[in-house]
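Q: My labmate handed me this sequence with no annotations at all. I'd like to see what the chain might look like in three dimensions before we decide whether it's worth expressing. Could you predict it?
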Amino acid sequence: MSIDPGQINFLAVLVAAVAMFTIGGVWYGLLFAKRWAEVHGYTDEQLQAMAKTQRRNFAIFFVSDLVMGVILSLLIINLDIQSAIQGAGLGLVIWFGIAATIGACKNAANNKPLAAFVIDTGHELTALVVMGMILGAWR
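A: Here is what I predict for the chain of 139 residues:
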């Protein structure tokens, strides 16, 4: 496997990271905020305390999205992926083989309901497929 940062389209990585970050905002802010808090058992007090660290958390989320974009881009380059469909397929494979399995283990270890797993890994599935599409199309 070649790890040549010169082959990475960093503008595409940035756009993919912004897309992934935006998907997270829509997912956890607009679509599933209340249900997510409920299935994870958070109280109003806990949510208020979490809100105090939101800026730091958002920074961590975005840097993590950038790192995922760089790594996904390297995989796309090395697998010679040439299209959005192929990129989406790689995102799906990574989700199924890595993100969903880690999520299932964490969900079980933390004794969370299935709904927590579905919400959290549904976000990861959507975000990885979109990121793969962007990076696969915009190599």
